[in-house]
Please model this.
Amino acid sequence: MTTQTLPFRATATQSSAPLGKRIRSAAYRLLERMTESAYEQYKPILRNYYL
Model:
């Protein structure tokens, strides 16, 4: 998931991007990080459940 956020970081740092686009980009990155963190936290449980 982390590799997908790299292009968004590059565009979010540009000051010429509209504010709404920068906010959406930051919100998407935050949501993705939270999702990835939750997945890493529950990975052992999920692995045992589906195996």
Notes: The helical segments are 2-12, 19-50. The chain has a mean pLDDT of 77. The longest helix spans residues 19-50. The CA atoms of residues 13 and 22 lie 8 Å apart.
